[in-house]
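User: hey, got a sec? need Fatty acid desaturase folded
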Amino acid sequence: LGKVAKGRDDRAETKRKLREVGDKIGRQIAKDYVVYPALTGRAWKSTLTANMTANVIRNLWTNAVIFCGHFPDGAEKFTKADVDNETQAQWYLRQMLGSANISGGPVMDFMTGNLSYQIEHHLFPDLPSNRYAEIAVRVRELCDKYDLPYTTGPLAVQYFKSWRTIAKLSLPNKYLADTPDAAPETASEHGFGGTAVVDPATGRRRGLATAIRENRRVRGLRRTLGMR
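Assistant: Yep! Here you go:
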């Protein structure tokens, strides 16, 4: 859309894609609001109402699931420069750090089509979704081993944080309580420069998970001192 607005797109290709999307939308509308109601004869009004209600519920639910997988606190932001020329290992790291899961057990997994495992979905896009729960155990073990954050939480909490993030990111950076790279809603690796790789006291590996906790502690201390 940005290229289209600036006139830098291939107009022929853009028109082709628009026709493709338009055809798809037209077929869906015809199926839900013309064909199916017509097939039910005199009950067409109730069928039309039922289809409209189902589509609204589906869209609201899809919105919640997708937002919870990408926008709550803990899901990192990345710029185009971060993505350009990244290695395969960095690609995997970005998929994990830029995603978030929804906790809730088998029922939630079923209701979300296993997209409650958004981290695993990003890491292994070709893996059948019914294997996400199994592979999630191994992903968490790797996160613990290398001290990497594994962002997950209840649906209501993640959805609230997602909208809070969107609201905050709609404002200029000066309105953030922390720097653009260190704030919970816009965290990135740039906010943790200078963090020791190994804890000199324990000899344990220090990664992003430890850096985030330390950063949170320091922010809290600064706010406390500021209040005093």
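Quick note: The first helix runs from residue 2 to 5. Let me know if you need anything else on Fatty acid desaturase.
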